[in-house]
Amino acid sequence: MGPDSLIADGGGKTEHDHHDTATAADLPALAALFREMEAHYDGPAAAPAEAEIVAALQRHVFAPEARVDLLVAEAGGRLLGFAFASMLFPAARCTPALFLKDIFVSAGDRSRGVGRALMRAVARLAASRGCSRINWNTARDNAAALAFYAKLGARPWDNVISLRVDGPALARLADE
């Protein structure tokens, strides 16, 4: 059975009228799930302390100037997964696009429709904002994610290479 509720972004919008909205009261559950995601990708030692995660969520998601949407799925008052998305401009023909930065479902709640419900919520958010597409990245060797995304109708964008500048290279570039 899939989630019985979708909570939308921290700005007060909800996916359906009868669903709750993510608020600062959700921070402990969000921090725990965020820690699980960090441990999943980088190992338990790499996961920040919950206090650090809560502070980052308050600063980057729940602050009035935040420019990120946080969609979360819950069932029975328990957080099952989340998706972080941000608007991009421009995309095709001067339209906006939505960038899905992260989608994560707790290990015990996978294969229950939670990820699909989150992706549906992301698609509805994109459509409501007039976006022409949703962009996101996944690891080339993440076969389960690639299969899941293919079932949604997503396809690889072969003519694009994801790039990044971080750490010392970012500091050097910023200091030029």
Strand order in the largest sheet: 1-2-3-4-5
Helical segment tally?
5
> Mean pLDDT, rounded to whole units?
85
Order of helices and strands: EHHEEEHEHH
Structural class: alpha+beta
CATH architecture: 3-Layer(aba) Sandwich
* Largest sheet entry: 5 strands, mixed
CATH superfamily label? Gcn5-related N-acetyltransferase (GNAT)
The rounded Rg comes to 17 Å
CATH topology grouping: Aminopeptidase
**What's the total number of strands?**
5
- Report the β-strand fraction as a percent range: 15-25%
Overall body shape: globular
Helix content: 25-40%
How far apart are the first and last residues' alpha carbons, in Å? 54 Å
CATH C-level: Alpha Beta
Structure write-up:
With 176 residues, the protein is α+β, with helices and mostly antiparallel strands. It has a single domain (5-175), classed as Aminopeptidase (3-Layer(aba) Sandwich). The chain is 34% helix and 19% strand. It has helices at 27-42, 50-60, 114-128, 143-151, 167-175; strands at residues 5-7, 69-75, 78-88, 97-105, 134-136. The protein has a 5-stranded mixed beta sheet with strand order 1-2-3-4-5, sandwiched between helices. Strand 3 (78-88) and strand 4 form a beta hairpin. The protein is globular, with a radius of gyration of 17 Å. The model is unreliable at 1-21 (pLDDT under 50).
